[in-house]
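Propose amino acids for all 407 sites.
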């Protein structure tokens, strides 16, 4: 799930020293994590004391206490320079430490606040129904390809004021960064090339919005000010770049995991159909149980101790959000999936200053997709004979084929 590589930064943030880089793809931790059914491994990690050190300079924080300690102390555990996916400057705000980080969240938080999300509910529902329309009478679909991949990007088009015709471009740019084909060298080459395309693509749209402002987030970025200062063009591009990485596949992957779960647990599916008002709680419980972003990484800035484990400067700390989400110190019956769970303080959106900016948007998308799907297709199952495939990277189901009766 995690791979650490030595690589030099390029662009305006060049450094002399090579940095350890968190890539988020397979290798190194295969014994510790299982993408298809991770919960037993999480349990083992928690039983091992909640923090382990599998290699020199590499620590895995698993208990809720250890995870909170790391995520809530950005001065000791930085996210700077850890994600390099074709970007030539740090991603904003993920790769920026406090206090500078706060400036960006002050601008961005209001744009993704619950009230803003209320205003797009109908648009989001129309977009998910657009995709369901295409297959509802067929009685089958490849859920991953025909809905989960397309829907979050379609919602982004709306937010950015882009027409439907841009969907293929957005998907191509996103996939070039998130799922480039080939060996690691080829992948890096593709990411660098697509990364440049992303900067050019958004730069051109920002030029248009500058000339002719619209009612969309790109125009809001151009207008936004903190302490009388506007965002520079580079800063806006670095935010847009992160949105492609953070805001699309995360929702896609959650949808595939949720529907794989519901298709294999008809008792849970029936609860949603019988009482759609439980959907918000069902979404929280599925986020906790499936934890689509199973973990993140930080680099230790100095000597420190987490849960009794000494950590040396420069060590990479992998934060197992998935394990923390089944920690019995925090959750009663953590290995049961219960849609009536109260006080579900899961960490699926992370914690501390870098807690997910898009959590309200993601929740809306997930709730609306569950609501509209079950309204229109209440009784469905996994296509017989399908063996689900969980590709490397973020947890997701690649080939979720579902069937239902149309009579
Ligand atoms: C179910 C879907 C999603 C999940 C599970 C998820 C999860 C996460 C997690 C775990 C983090 C913290 C990463 C870290 O601390 O290293 C994060 C950060 C972030 N997410 Fe999400 N995310 C989702 C959807 C979205 C969406 C739709 C957006 C679109 C705006 C978004 C934008 C961001 C941004 C910008 C950050 C960085 C925040 C910062 O550094 O201050 N995410 N997300």
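Proposal:
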């Amino acid at each position: 799930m995690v791979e650490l590589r030595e690589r030099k930064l390029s662009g305006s943030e060049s450094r002399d020293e090579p940095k350890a880089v968190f890539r988020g793809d397979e290798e190194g931790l295969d014994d510790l994590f299982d993408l298809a059914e991770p919960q037993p491994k999480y349990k083992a990690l928690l039983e091992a004391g909640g923090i382990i050190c599998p290699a020199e300079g590499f620590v895995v924080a698993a208990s809720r206490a250890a995870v909170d300690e790391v995520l809530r102390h950005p001065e000791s555990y930085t996210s700077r320079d850890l994600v390099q996916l074709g970007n030539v400057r740090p991603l904003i705000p993920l790769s920026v430490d406090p206090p500078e980080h706060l400036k960006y969240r002050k601008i961005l938080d209001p744009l993704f606040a619950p009230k803003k999300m209320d205003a797009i509910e109908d648009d989001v529902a129309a977009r998910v129904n657009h995709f369901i329309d295409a297959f509802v009478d067929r009685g089958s679909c490849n859920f991953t390809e025909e809905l989960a991949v397309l829907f979050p990007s379609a919602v982004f088009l709306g937010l950015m004021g882009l027409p439907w015709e841009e969907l293929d471009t957005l998907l191509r740019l996103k996939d070039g960064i998130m799922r480039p084909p080939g060996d690691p060298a080829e992948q890096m080459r593709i990411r660098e090339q697509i990364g440049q395309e992303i900067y050019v693509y958004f730069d051109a749209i920002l030029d248009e919005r500058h000339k002719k402002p619209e009612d969309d987030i790109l125009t809001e970025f151009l207008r936004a000010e903190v302490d009388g200062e506007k965002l520079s063009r580079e800063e806006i591009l670095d935010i847009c770049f992160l949105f492609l990485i953070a805001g699309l596949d995360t929702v896609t992957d959650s949808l595939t995991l949720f529907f794989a779960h519901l298709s294999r647990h008809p008792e849970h599916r029936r609860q949603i159909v019988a009482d759609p008002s439980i959907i918000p709680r069902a979404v929280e419980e599925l986020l906790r149980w499936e934890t689509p972003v199973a973990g993140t990484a930080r680099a230790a800035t100095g000597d420190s101790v987490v849960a009794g484990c000494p950590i040396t400067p420069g060590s990479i700390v992998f934060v197992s959000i998935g394990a923390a989400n089944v920690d019995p110190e925090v959750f009663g019956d953590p290995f049961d999936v219960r849609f009536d769970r109260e006080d579900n303080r899961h960490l699926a959106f992370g914690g501390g200053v870098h807690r997910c900016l898009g959590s309200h948007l993601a929740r809306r998308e997930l709730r609306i997709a569950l609501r509209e799907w079950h309204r229109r297709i209440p009784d469905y199952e996994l296509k017989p004979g399908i063996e689900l495939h969980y590709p490397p990277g973020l947890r997701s189901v690649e080939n979720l084929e579902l069937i239902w009766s149309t009579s």
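Residues 79, 93-94, 105, 112, 242-243, 246-247, 250-251, 254, 292-293, 296, 321, 348-350, 354, 356-358, 361-362 surround protoporphyrin IX containing FE (CB under 6 Å). The chain has one domain: 4-404.
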